[in-house]
Amino acid sequence: MTGLFDERIRALASESPFTGPETLERRNGQAFATRLGANESVFGPSPKTIEAMARVAADSWMYGDPEQFELREALAEKHGLAAKNIICGVGIDGLLRDLLSVACAPGSRVLTSLGAYPTFGYFATAAGAAIETVPYTADFRQNWQRLTERAQELRPKVLYLTNPDNPTGSYHDAGSLQTVLADVPDDTIVALDEAYCDFAPAEAIPPADLVRPNLLRFRTFSKAYGMAGARIGYVIGDPYAIAQFDKVRDHFAVTRLSQAGAIAALADVDHLKRTIAEVAKAREQLAQVAENLGFAALPSATNFVAIDLGKGGEDCRKIAEDIERRGVFVRRPATEFLNRTLRVTAGTATDIERFGKALRSAVNRLDS
Amino acid sequence: MTGLFDERIRALASESPFTGPETLERRNGQAFATRLGANESVFGPSPKTIEAMARVAADSWMYGDPEQFELREALAEKHGLAAKNIICGVGIDGLLRDLLSVACAPGSRVLTSLGAYPTFGYFATAAGAAIETVPYTADFRQNWQRLTERAQELRPKVLYLTNPDNPTGSYHDAGSLQTVLADVPDDTIVALDEAYCDFAPAEAIPPADLVRPNLLRFRTFSKAYGMAGARIGYVIGDPYAIAQFDKVRDHFAVTRLSQAGAIAALADVDHLKRTIAEVAKAREQLAQVAENLGFAALPSATNFVAIDLGKGGEDCRKIAEDIERRGVFVRRPATEFLNRTLRVTAGTATDIERFGKALRSAVNRLDS
Fold first, then answer.
1. CA angle centred on B5, ends B3 and B6, rounded to 5°
2. Prediction ipTM score
3. Residues near B342 by Cβ (< 8 Å), separated by ≥ 6?
4. Listed residues A267, A287, A310: the one ending a domain
5. Is residue A332 part of a domain?
6. How far apart are the first and last CA of chain A?
7. Can you give the residue ranges of the Aminotransferase class I/classII large domain (chains A, B) (predicted)?
8. B151 found inside a domain
9. Residue from the list B49, B60, B252 with its beta carbon closest to the beta carbon of A227
10. CA distance A271 to A265
11. Is A129 within 8 Å of A110 (Cβ atoms)?
12. Are residues B276 and B245 part of one domain?
């Protein structure tokens, strides 16, 4: 089998950028009672989304519209843009894959933060790109200034930024993006992942009609809209850039149900507002849980809170594993420095109580 | 924007391998009364699938299992294989994209039939591969002998075969595949697209446990299971080959609803049998319609019938467009030679009657 598969692929390990909670459940031989590890919305999709998906389930014999026309029209209206500024895909994950397909060839360089969303690196590696990283600052923020300077030196095909940031919850204000755009090379694509933008303060998010030839903004229905399992996201950008996606993307990949569900979700502004309010409340509760145990909760502009355990990676790993054994699914970033934090998604009061108990027990066990 | 996007991508046109019926509807300003152009199953998904999808719609806030564990277990049982022989993806389209990502790099060569499923060529081009083709035989069959000979000369990374064939409906028997496997180079992956296998005579389909290091068999829930809009397919192969997909695929891309729907579909063998029987009946009715108008219907081992209009491509184009204007969605292959055929999907008696009337009117109009 020497010559089967491309050389660069044969050298890679077979693994997902994230281990799914179902895999952990099978491994542990028990289901999670509390699922706060994947930044999903326990507050669920809009009832109107659920209704729309159930209603069109019988239509699943038909392929979904490969242009996602109605959804793109609805998104264009929401953002004050044209449909040609928008492309849909199978969540931000799928759209990052598309981006790396159009931007890179084997040997291309891409730039991001050390510890940023692993799926970007996963698809960059699959595309044969070399990934360069810049560490987070000591206060758990992406170092946009250093990233920009490095982009000037490196001239990467893609500079990947997330705002607000995952896995820290921190954010940069809209003006910072303008500075990045002014200073990065014209032939570097700034891929701005705004998965968590709905939870952020207004000052963090540039106006939706900020369109530049080298700026692509990634949005999703997975977080505030509570549709992670329906796989649907979109990119906002310059029409020329958006048109590149149509050269490589799987046009039919967004399911018929997901399209119907997303259109219904956009129409239910009240559900979105309720979710955002619930998340804000949960963030405070999570911060309180952390503080009661003597830990700092990092300020969060997202639907999760990163808790700084202030302990080395090994202790933090033991705590995370212990919490998992106690039936609570949370994540610990894998990267050096960030791996002293636990990333806990906003949940119901019951979820947070269960997490708090598990964390307390895990810490006591470690200290004993 | 000179340096934005990879050079090979900038050179491509922005277009889908297929224009969706919704796009045609918007262009024509009217909805299709009859939808027989995308080889979907008008007989629908199993009621159990519809019920399962509706039931889990509210769970869409959770990502689907990235291992598709339960579904793969069910498929392994169905085929008498192990789960490690199976990988799931967003339909065969998405899995072909994965294949081309793992098998090719820019400059690789792939081989297929001239006029074979365009999505294979689309993703091959996106991967930077050079596509070589071998024409169909005069009796509308893929020329497996010539393809094998050409593979020996060319040593392509992938040889893409479909059996039964789309868009002709013809098939090769299981023994022919053995001959291909014996004769192609060991480092050529034989990608066998079996999307239509459920409709084929038993002699066409090799046993499911025919596993070879360089053989990958593509299956789907889009056709006989009536779940095209749910985007779910799988590949059967050698564990080493299957593991390569995990290096590049979008692990979370198959929706939670689709996984639940597919598991329910596998359990409803009666619905599958009914669909296959309905399709067989419809094929006969479509052949009758063609013969009544003096045209030959090609023998079909699929859920569609290719009607040989025996006219040049230009006349055939006019007929196809006229049928479309009369509210009936069918496809005409784009490639020279095959473009004298119309590809008509199995439908209800009403669908077929409408198609027959539209075809008669279109032919009369052309002759007048």
1. 95
2. 0.97
3. B306, B307, B309, B316, B319, B320, B323, B330, B331, B332, B359
4. A267
5. yes
6. 53
7. 35-357
8. yes
9. B60
10. 8
11. yes
12. no
Same domain, B212 and B282: no
CATH number of the domain within which B363 lies:
3.90.1150.10
Give the residue on B whose Cα is nearest the Cα of A124.
B248
How far off is chain B from A91, nearest CA to CA, in Å?
8
Task: Kindly give the pairing relationship between strand A328-329 and strand B158-162.
Answer: unpaired
> Count of A–B CB contacts within 8 Å?
290
Q: How many CB atoms lie within 10 A of CB A30?
A: 13
> Does B60 share its domain with B189?
yes
User: Contacts of residue B181 in chain A, CB cutoff 8 Å?
Assistant: none
Q: Which residue of B has its CA nearest to A25?
A: B65
Q: Does B96 lie in the same domain as B241?
A: yes
**Mutation target among A1, A216, A231 for the B interface, most CBs of B within 10 A:** A231
Residue B137 is assigned to a structural domain of this protein: yes
CB-CB neighbours of B139 under 10 Å: 9
Scanning every residue of chain B, which has its alpha carbon at the shortest distance from the alpha carbon of A2? B187
Contacts of B303 in chain A (CB under 8 A): none
Whether the Cβ atoms of residue B350 and residue B42 lie closer than 8 Å to each other: no
Q: Are residues B108 and B148 in the same domain?
A: yes
8 Å CB contact of A49 and B60:
yes
In the listed set B204, B236, B267, which residue is the last one of a domain according to the structure?
B267
Q: Which domain holds residue A114?
A: 47-267
Which residue out of A16, A60, A120 would a mutagenesis test of the B interface target, given it has the greatest number of B Cβ atoms within 10 Å?
Answer: A60
Q: How many Å lie between the alpha carbon of A367 and the closest alpha carbon of chain B?
A: 34
Distance from CA of A45 to the nearest CA of B (A): 6
Domains held by chain B: number: 2
Q: Is residue B7 part of a domain?
A: no
The answer on A185 and A296 residing in a single domain is no
Which residues of chain A does B10 touch, with a Cβ-Cβ cutoff of 8 Å? 244
Task: Report CB contact under 8 Å: A61, B67.
Answer: no
